[in-house]
Amino acid sequence: LFENWREFLDAEDYLLLEETLLDEGLKDWFKEKWEQLKTEKRVALKAAVQEWHETKGVAPILKKLISKEEVSEEEKTELNTQALDILKTVGWGTFAAVPGTLGGVALIIYILQKMGLTPLPSAYYDVKRITGPQ
Known about the structure:
Blueprint lengths: L1 H56 L1 H8 L6 H25 L4 H13 L7 H10 L3
Helix pairs in contact: 1-5, 3-4
């Protein structure tokens, strides 16, 4: 009876050791994912701030256009790019605001990016390019 008890204890110790290794692996994985999420949030915040400044920057061009003043081709291109960025932001933001669709939005954006499309505002890609791979 005593020998069987020792065998049981050894088996239990082995299982506890295995669980500890598993817990450490999960902790490392969660820590890595948490850091990645924080980095992505920082990039998204920088992109949002940059997008805000770009939107403010095209206001004088829009004012010139409305007052029928001369607008260069470069300014028209900048205004068009910014208008498209605003539409992307409003579109994705509206879709993401619907409860339960945030995961779907992320999946759609991921798929579109894999297809070589740019579904996000240009500032997001500029910030990613500047900050480099994370």
